[in-house]
Amino acid sequence: MSMTQRIKTIFPFLLLLAVISLLAYELYQGKPPESLSNLIGESMPAFTVNNLYSKEPPLTNDYFQNEVVLLNVWASWCEACRLEHEMLMKISKQNLIPIYGLAYNDKESDAKQLLQTLGNPYKMVGIDNSGDLSIELGIYGTPETFIINRGNIVYKQIGPIDQKTWDKTLYPFIKKLK
Amino acid sequence: MIKNKYNAITLVLGVLLFIFMKQIPAASLNDEERYINLTQQIRCLVCQNQNIQDSNASLAKDLRRKIYALILEKKSDQDIKNYLTKRYGDIILLKPRLNNLTFLLWFFPIIGMLILCYYLYNFFKSQPSTMLK
Lengths: 178, 133
Known about the structure:
The complex is a heterodimer. The longest helix of chain A has 26 residues, at 3-28. In chain A, 40% of the residues lie in helices and 20% in strands. Chain A has helices at residues 3-28, 79-93, 108-118, 132-136, 163-177; strands at residues 48-49, 59-60, 68-74, 99-104, 124-128, 144-149, 152-158. The longest helix of chain B is centred in the C-terminal third of the chain and has 24 residues, at 103-126. The A-B interface holds A 8, 12, 15, 32-39, 105, 130-132, 134-138, 140-141 and B 45-46, 48, 58-59, 61-63, 65-66, 85-92, 115, 119, 122.
């Protein structure tokens, strides 16, 4: 058998092996597909939602227009948000960046209860029970955190912020914007 | 008289059933059809591989309501899909769109078949035929 012939015979098997390896990799090592928001670079949509503390003024996008802020979407029923809470408290104590909160699909009493026991890292907390604002922001799982630079969405973190993501990603990003 | 009474009860029950069967009243038959069609094509992101019509997740409910509102605003199907992919990415569509990223995904079966045919053709051509002898 000549060399080219040999390659020709082996090639289909190699191709099959490659496809099977790819499938096996995706099956065992692949990450579940993530929603990729295309909102980065867009301006924050205009909105008004009730304040969690109903006596205080509503949360609107006007608060985001003139500075760099974090907008953290959370819920009291969300375990990952509870885990993240400590980190948010830490960040808020640094006085580096104001954190605004948006309680998603939550009971007012439960949300208040959580902030009372674990502390309140937020400058202001809105509540979105209709889900309208959350859809507008492409929220599909809490917690999600936006970095908003003078009214523009510049970064979106899906999942809890821990020390590592803060040190490696969020903090340097914010530092650059300031 | 009795017959009339039963008719009346049937009518009332029928009307009640009609009211409660419909989750959301549609503005027109055409809108209803579009609503049903669209909600079948949108993925529920928290219970993947289910569409938002079948899903009971709160996100699915919110998305159904949003789609309904957009239909009432006279947005086209394409507008609604664009609205959703802008916010949630292409993954929200159960059927991937055809673009240069998904070209291979859509056409690999055909390309694979062609490669296979080529090999089979070569294989049989190189084999001396024993069948016809």
